[in-house]
Amino acid sequence: MTSYKLLLLPGDGIGTEIMAEVKTVIDWFGARGVASFEYEQDLVGGSAYDAHGKAVSEETMAKALAADAVIFGAVGGPKWDSVPYDVRPEAALLRLRKDLQLFANLRPAICYPALADASSLKRELVEGLDILIVRELTGGVYFGEPKEIVTLENGQKRAVDTQLYTTSEIERIARVAFDLAKTRSSKVASAEKRNVMKSGVLWNQVVTKIGKEEYPDVALEHVLADNCAMQLVRRPKQYDVIVCDNLFGDILSDVAAMLTGSLGMLPSASLGAPDATTGRRKALYEPVHGSAPDIAGKGVANPIAMIASFAMALRYSFGLGAEADLLDRAIAGVLGKGLRTADIFTEGTTRVGTKEMGAAILAEL
Amino acid sequence: MTSYKLLLLPGDGIGTEIMAEVKTVIDWFGARGVASFEYEQDLVGGSAYDAHGKAVSEETMAKALAADAVIFGAVGGPKWDSVPYDVRPEAALLRLRKDLQLFANLRPAICYPALADASSLKRELVEGLDILIVRELTGGVYFGEPKEIVTLENGQKRAVDTQLYTTSEIERIARVAFDLAKTRSSKVASAEKRNVMKSGVLWNQVVTKIGKEEYPDVALEHVLADNCAMQLVRRPKQYDVIVCDNLFGDILSDVAAMLTGSLGMLPSASLGAPDATTGRRKALYEPVHGSAPDIAGKGVANPIAMIASFAMALRYSFGLGAEADLLDRAIAGVLGKGLRTADIFTEGTTRVGTKEMGAAILAEL
Ligand SMILES: CC(C)[C@H](C(=O)O)[C@@H](O)C(=O)O
Ligand SMILES: CC(C)[C@H](C(=O)O)[C@@H](O)C(=O)O
């Protein structure tokens, strides 16, 4: 039986509560004998800053690098709003993405039929929605240098960020998108701003070339990022896989997530390249929602996005697609029975807390 | 009677058809004697490229610089998709913005009650929506240098764009937003990505300072750009004035526009700083929608956004607020009577073409 090492990083706010539910799910799959999961838990984000002045310690980074998968909660909160830029909670996430070289961020936006009414869009526009945003995660304006604020002679300040992409960075994320498209409806939309950005021009050229030469059977469409944001609001079901850079991916995936009406449901996977000899890839799984400091500690947070993130780990890190399907079905099943945490509660359904939702999913399994 | 010089640049696609309707409106206001309007028309975008190989000629630029206001249609279309980057249709718009120093882009997103059902959002979420996006228009990643694609030794290409903001660039756009907020509900949301961008950090600091020192009575909220996009979809009416940089403004204003369900209705104004001696400011007015090449020449395009752009010119360039209100009311009146161009047509309303819509607005005036 294969053995996997997981690093659990609950982070701040509701992170700890929802991670507790994931542990019961991991244990269940371990007990079932599909694989053996060893896990260790550590601090990250604001709580790590409080403990040792850094958003992520070197020891934690070493553990993350050694792990088969990192399961990440959420970081940040008003408490750390004025800590220095370099040690702010988000710095931990950026460092993990960069050092583990997690260049491919997969963000599914799925609208569960049971929750379609929670969307701010009309039901018919979102019912059955199933989009996968493939976001480049280790390049672009997030990491390009120079990235600085300098004080000019006249006392003015000047801030610079650098949007930077190379051919190979675009090629590898394009391949991830095309490969995933082949397992879905063989359709990719590539979003950039080629009309104003040189990185958009290169992005467009490289994606076009990879599509033509390596994936002639996948339909490729190019869309300007601003128009893509619009089209997501107008008629989201026209899209299947959307591939884009780090910054556009940040915004477009949030828009897509919000269309579903249930942010508390959406997982994400951040993947590295498969190792040349072992075939294993570094990976981090995290919910799309944030640390929700306003409801932290109250036992009302929705653990589903966090649990669904572990389902993505089963699929993409452990090759356990059938088990991932099982877990996804358990989630859908519990929703079908009318159980709802506060964020997705509507008249006529049964309101439950974090622990009850976790337990219900276990029971459904 | 004050005399104003207008430069009309219809551009490509439906530009010419909708500009023809604006002319009748300009003539009406001229005949009414509120001011005297002289206008001249010229080529821009793809049609200028076809005529003389550049998206905007030096003569046209000189006329634009001399005009009291530029009334701009729309540029671009598949015909010019593969012209060189420097002479692509959009280059004209960027050059006009830059050379006329039109740093403040005002994009109202208004949901007309008569059209609320056209929104993809539920009616109650958008009915009465009235957001004003104030977008910085001459800085950021649109214009920062370096902006280039270089070929590396290994044959790879490397594309760079530079996001760049100085204190004074942020100060002046912040003041525009705060000033406008004072004429509305005294509420500004400033959107950036301070958690990953140094320009976001500076943006946040400068807007905070201007707010505190110069506009203590305006409520200021900071929101991350990705979250702002989400919140626009979730509960758009929480916003009134949103101020943001060039690239975020591009996307957020498109999302806001799409929420209203009627892109063909939305105007925009791009303003320079008032001249120190004359008080006049350079300005360009254009609809938010594009050149719609698919329906060009068919006489079915909606001229309202273009006409409403002239209403913004009356207000912001000519100090004719009452006349602007009159024109806005005429537009609302025509909609109230059930007249609709194809893009906003619904069961039970009367479908009209471009010319009929223009004539109806004139009649209403
Ligand atoms: C927390 C923040 C740094 C992060 C990002 O901007 O990438 C978040 O918004 C996300 O999308 O994962
Ligand atoms: C046409 C294009 C260059 C332009 C922009 O990106 O600014 C457009 O999208 C806009 O919003 O005015």
Automatic annotation (TrEMBL), chains A, B:
Binding site for Mg(2+): D226, D250, D254
EC number: 1.1.1.85
SUPFAM superfamilies cross-referenced by the UniProt entry: Isocitrate/Isopropylmalate dehydrogenase-like (SSF53659)
Record's keyword annotation contains Protease: no
Domain spans labelled Isopropylmalate dehydrogenase-like: 5-361
Biological or metabolic pathway of the protein: Amino-acid biosynthesis; L-leucine biosynthesis; L-leucine from 3-methyl-2-oxobutanoate: step 3/4
Broad enzyme group: oxidoreductase
Molecular-function GO terms, alphabetical: 3-isopropylmalate dehydrogenase activity
Domain of life: Bacteria
Gene3D superfamilies hit by this protein: Isopropylmalate Dehydrogenase
UniProt xrefs under NCBIfam families: leuB (TIGR00169)
Subunit text: Homodimer.
Function description: Catalyzes the oxidation of 3-carboxy-2-hydroxy-4-methylpentanoate (3-isopropylmalate) to 3-carboxy-4-methyl-2-oxopentanoate. The product decarboxylates to 4-methyl-2 oxopentanoate.
Full protein name: 3-isopropylmalate dehydrogenase
Species annotation: Kaistia dalseonensis
Gene: leuB
